[in-house]
Amino acid sequence: MSPIRLFAAGLVAAVAATPAIAQTCLRPAEKAAFEVRSLQSQLMVAALLCKQDEQYNAFVRQFQSPLASAWEGMSTHYRRANGAVGVRLRDNFVTELANVQQMDSGRQGSHFCQNVSSLFTAAMAAPKTTEGLANLAVANNLSNPHGRSECGAATTPAARTAPERTERRTAIRRVSTNAR
Question: pTM for the whole thing?
Fold first, then answer.
């Protein structure tokens, strides 16, 4: 098959799959799972870029159960929304999330490691629940470009353009420098 035909076939498949993905909303537990993954991904990027692997490893050990629950929650969402290709799409999302967060670290430049160090402290002090970690991710406005609305969420233009929603969809993270 020629490269042009292969590209065209891939484009048709992607367009055909888009409505099913776009119409799938996040249930509350799934939304929390995405938020937890956002936090874990941000800490992983910080561990790699700021040489904070000991802090990251301590976080993973301390929060092993809620992190596993969050992973399963994301997996459940992708299986429910996408069937057999759900695992691949979940893995693609995890990679995209890390890439977005790594690019944000580049925008912060030399301030990134200083800005993110308080996130490790706050994470270690968070409740050892999925909800506790999800709340921390939301409070720190971590990038989470999943692009899905919550099930039952208002769909009015005002609701879609609320500042929090708009910021989260642009996949830009602002690191809180407030001491916690």
Answer: 0.70
